[in-house]
Structures
1.
Amino acid sequence: MARITLLPEQFSLVEYDAAEVVAVVEEAAALVGFPTDVDVVVEVDEELFAPLVGCSADVVDGRAHVWISGANLEDVTRPRHFSADRSRLDFVIALLRAKDRLGPDFADAPADAELTLAERTAWDAWSEGRAERLGVPTRRQRRLYDYRLQHGFTDVADAVFDRLWAADTVTWAGIREACKETGASDRPAARVAADLLRQRP
Amino acid sequence: MKKMLPESELARDERFVRSDILARVHDPRGPRVAARNTGPAKMAVDRPAAAERSRSLMHGIFVGEIQALEGAGRTCYDFDDDQAPFALKLDMARQCWDESRHCEISVKLGDHMGSEIGEYTESTFLYQAACNPDPVLRLTGVNRALEGLAIDVFSTMKEFGHESGDPVLEFCEDWMLADEVTHVKMGSDWLRRLTANDPERLERALEFQRTVDKLFSLGGFRGETDENPIQLARRFRELAGFTDEENDEIAEVSAQATEEARRMASQALIGTN
């Protein structure tokens, strides 16, 4: 099993149990078949709360680095408490994407902070589709809305979403192609940095 | 049937979870987040967590619609005809019908955005504004302050629907917005009629509205800058019968609330550190 390092080792602002969080990550790593010889660093930003969700998955110096907002792990109906059910899908998606980055198909993909919102939502759509096929409870309509905000509320965009969701294989070039097809590539660049929530004063 | 129902007795099924205001106030993360740049507060597709923020706000609108329905419904029943004329109750009954449709529309918009009923907590401060035992003050709290806020919220959401190219959101918000303008107009008309010979009561009602408006602007929630998630919709407010002076007053209260929130956040952060 991949070695998981959780940051922080103990939470002080929220009542998350570090061992419980690590257990969910380990379960996700096993489910996606994450390479056992690649270490995973999971950094939880415990300052952030709902609805300030966010997650990134990069490979740095041969290790997978997952940054995730505390809001993604939070039981929305019990603030400051961990929800394994709510966080499972996000960890599965993050590790699927980190695993993509370890392979040749995504070797050219820029770091998450450099991705456009359209590229990111297209990649997430494919990842959540894969998560569903792995047996993880997913929320297709929710993902579709996130995707539509970046690709448009059009039949063309929806058809591309369906294709991504169901695809067995997609490459980084395929993600970029999908963005061209929906017209998202021609949209103005975001005015806000994609990793703004990661930046701390 | 019981009259003057407190918010603690509102009927909800097991999906709904009431938010704990005290827990929120004492949440140690609050001042830390306030000190960070989390992007523009104003709704836009390229701000961080745009979709989740929209879903959360949509759910807030949904529970707000339920409470507006409950508030207007209680007014039909809580007062005798000598306290509140039958014609006023008839207007409130019509409003109940509108709010019921808004609840249904909001549920469908939640589905459209991929959220579920009860996914976010419910705060009942809107209904609390509808618990005043004086029908004139209640009408002012509900039909001018609460429904005035609804105008601002729907106008903001409609604009977001337009900007994001979401025809479903834009269309639905536009229709609900039209209803809210009518509700505020009813409140303004009844306030004038019921206080025609009682300037003191009128002043008390307007003072109550100012208090509620301040509550609704708390933490810089509403205002006219990019720091405010909900934008003051001056044009629609005018259509609903608010004067320029009244709109200026709300803008001023909102600006004070934004400044107050900023000051409290920095004080709390100093305390935390």
2.
Amino acid sequence: MTMSPGIRKLALTAHVSASVGWLGAVAGFLALAIGGLTSQQSQTVGSAYLAMELLIWSVIVPLSLASLVTGLVSSLSTTWGLFRHYWVLAKLLLTILATVFLALHTQPVGRVASLATERTLTSADLRQVRIQLVADAGAALLVLLVNTTLGVYKPRGMTRYGWRRQHQQKGSQP
Amino acid sequence: MADLDRYPGVPRWVKVFGIFALVLVLLFVVLHLTGRGLGDHGLSRDHAPSGGRPASPEPGHR
């Protein structure tokens, strides 16, 4: 896929913005999950889960999809490619994993939020799920930090496919 | 110069990264299979409302 340098920069800017925004939103989600689990104020507990549901649907899901799409566009429009370098491949797999993981967690967040709208949550209500939400948000934050690190450091290492393509291109040059 | 034409192999960081990712995925799958993870089983198990009083009333709540 060939793109003009201006469009490539735009795609990269969109990708960085979406990815960093996703990271920040997950950090906020983790803070709310911890607040919802540990707060002694029932009003805070209920509000935290309602805010988490809003955050996941209005910020986290759109940003995760935007990060995935803009990442695909950025990689395919540059010489980095999608399957040529291990760091790009690792980022792709982690992004897909985090997006799928996120999709699985919209339901439990919705259930806790729905219960919070019905009545005041006690510390025992859905405790297992609430603990799991904290653990999963922490894991998601770690995955996104790894993704950011990979994107900045771009560790060396070409895949066998990338190596072959590079040699083919060298061979075709006069 | 024949060495330059040979694929240098998978870098060490990729191997470490792969093992780490595999362990995490296996852990996730095991947690789900044992019913400790999220999903319908985990939710239905402890979804039963406690019906008790709130952990603590909000300030000013009587």
